[in-house]
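I am sending you the entry underneath: sequence plus fold tokens. Let me know what the token row says about the fold:
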Amino acid sequence: IYTLSLHDALPISTDAGLAHAGRGCLRLTAVARDGRESGVGASGWFGPQGYDRVYFRRYLKFADDYDQGNLNHVGGGLAAVAGADRYRAMGSAGLRPRGDDHFNAAFEPWRDWGRYSAPGYMFLYTYWMDMRRDRDGHYWGNMLGPEKDDRVVPARGRWHCLEHMIACNTPGKANGELAAWIDGKLYVHYKGLRWRTSADVKLKRFDLGLYVHQARKDNTVWYDDVAISTGYIGPATDR
């Protein structure tokens, strides 16, 4: 298990009372901007060698008054890219990956136009070569998640253990995987995915962030106990 420490330049809260464990945690606030977009975040780079299977565990807490309105990106993601450019594929929203360039999946909530209370139910926001095209002609991230009766809305004001895993496919085969856990319980598990056509596309980056599409109020989340592994990690209390 590789536990990642976030550097002092980031907005680290040193109030141990706010942390899930230890002496501090990462605090991110998307500030109000009169309904315009607002975001903040950080990313980590595994190195150009990358990995074919990665598990990404983090604890996330939403502020008691968290309410994005509808659209947001928060919860953390994994990205696979070709080559050694750690920023590759950033800013590629709306475009379908080719298979030899990149793919990614983030574990995040959605309110479904107000049908769910804030922050919304969890799903995997995913870009890959076989994704479906949106009705507007673009390729916005596909929403992969459980059936309606199995959807989980995280409670605000308490820590949740989120973990998701990506296993790359063998080029030429559809044997990739995507899975997610909430508080140690398996939430979804997809098999038979065709993520890539080139073995150079490997998992090389993770992201922690908060982005609100129409920021009408300040929204804050906290991240803590971030860990990366090539095997399942699980909640910190289970270790």
In short: The longest strand covers residues 202-215.
